[in-house]
Specification:
Elements lengths: L7 H6 L2 H14 L6 H14 L3 E5 L2 H11 L7 E5 L4 H8 L4 E5 L9 H4 L7 E7 L8 H10 L3 E5 L7 E2 L2 E2 L6 E5 L13 E5 L2 H11 L3 E3 L2 E2 L10 H11 L2 H18 L7 E2 L7 E2 L5 E5 L2 H13 L29 H9 E4 L7 H13 L3
Parallel strand pairs: 2-3, 2-4, 4-5, 5-8
Antiparallel strand pairs: 1-9, 6-7, 6-13, 8-9, 10-11, 12-14, 14-15
Helix pairs in contact: 2-9, 3-9, 4-5
The structure holds pyridoxal-5'-phosphate.
């Protein structure tokens, strides 16, 4: 049995008729960019998240870039972010000319609230939290820190659609929530897509202007903007998927519960993911942590032999990437982050995963001995 780390086709076939009907509807409409499908999706997604406004964009990276731009964060400013994030979070900061200031993550891979204040300087303008793998950061503590120091709070929710902290959805804690609808995400499109959520009318307006060459009214350009528009086809298909979001999220949580219950790591060769108290994890990824790098390599090879695919999210932390060599960090700068990068492993987790497939993965992992 061949098992891939993710199966996006399963998500399509589960609601095939609805997707095909919507696609045809949009194709026949003769209107393809920024139209009624986008407006309707923005309205529905804002309601789902519990924020006042949503602005559809072309990608999650654009959402991050435009969020910091709309907040007026740029050259000379610092933004705090956890060092173990996906590199796009950091690019959203540096594309504006601002400097990322890295902080180590906690046990649940979120920004370590207890280490955040020490990173604040007089140049700090914002904190960026990334709800990595689908688990919210410690939003009570981080919210207090941002407030105490008068900092903007931005959330990278690319992996956390539907995740909540204290019953409140991610994407509503900060000044701006940034979402990706890349096909593999919990709410995935059939191409690229993204959005921001906010309760601030002026921010929503600014980002609407920025996404369309800096214009509110066609050919009357107020600022130098970008082309970052969600198209009608993706918006329509996203609305179909959004209407099933609760069952899709429950399905992933159920798969995670079975992994939690049935995986029996031998001799401490790997650990299961920790759950944060007061938080709802939506398991964009189910990430185990091997004892060390060598054990992870053996585990990957062992699973590969059985045709079980895995992914490392992420093998090179941004501060050690070639792209950010100019920041001047070296190996050892963030030992917890680097240790996680050496040990984390995402095992198969997707909507439509069958019981047989999961039992096969569990059997292989439980049979693995060093
Ligand atoms: C945490 C995180 N931030 C940002 C992004 C960027 O999103 P996109 O691929 O839509 O640009 C992604 C996904 O790729 C992500 O996982």
């Amino acid at each position: 049995m061949k098992i891939m780390p993710n199966r996006m086709d399963r998500g399509f076939f589960a609601y095939q008729e609805e997707f095909e009907q919507k696609a045809l509807e949009v194709l026949r409409s003769g209107w393809y960019v920024l139209g009624k499908e986008v407006s309707s999706f923005e309205e529905n997604f804002a309601a789902y998240v519990g924020s006042k406004y949503c602005v559809g964009l072309a990608s999650g990276l654009d959402a991050l870039y435009l969020a910091f731009r709309a907040l007026g964060i740029g050259t000379g400013d610092e933004v705090i972010v956890h060092a173990n994030t996906y590199i796009a979070s950091v690019m959203g900061i540096t594309m504006n000319g601002a400097t990322p200031v890295f902080v180590e993550p906690d046990e649940c891979y979120g920004l370590d609230a207890s280490k955040t204040e020490a990173a604040i300087t007089d140049k700090t303008k914002a904190i960026l939290v990334v709800h990595l793998y689908g688990q919210p950061c410690q939003m009570d503590e981080i919210g207090k820190i941002a407030k105490r120091h008068g900092l903007k709070l931005v959330e990278d929710c690319a992996q956390s659609h539907g995740a909540a902290f204290g019953g409140r959805m991610t994407g509503t804690f900060g000044d701006i929530g940034c979402f990706s609808f890349y096909p593999s995400k919990n709410l995935g499109a059939f191409g690229d897509g993204g959005a921001i959520t906010t309760d601030d009318e002026e921010i929503a307006k600014q980002i609407r202007i920025l996404r369309n060459y800096g214009s509110e009214k066609r050919y009357y350009n107020q600022v130098v903007g970008v082309n970052s528009r969600l198209d009608e086809l993706q918006a329509g298909l996203l609305s179909v998927r959004l209407s099933h979001m609760e069952e899709l999220t429950r399905e992933k949580q159920h798969i995670a519960e079975l992994y939690d219950k049935l995986l029996k790591p031998k001799d401490g060769l790997f650990e299961l993911p920790e759950r944060r108290e007061n938080a709802t994890h939506v398991f964009h990824q189910y990430v185990i942590r091997a004892k060390d790098k060598e054990t992870r390599e053996k585990l990957i090879a062992y699973l590969n032999e059985r045709e079980i695919g895995t992914i490392i999210h992420y093998p090179i932390p941004p501060h050690l990437s070639q792209a950010y060599a100019y920041l001047g960090y070296e190996k050892g700068s963030f030992p917890i982050t680097e240790d996680y990068a050496d040990r984390v492993l995402s095992i198969p987790m997707y909507n439509g995963m069958t019981e047989e497939e999961q039992a096969f993965v569990i059997g292989a992992l439980n049979a693995f001995v060093g």
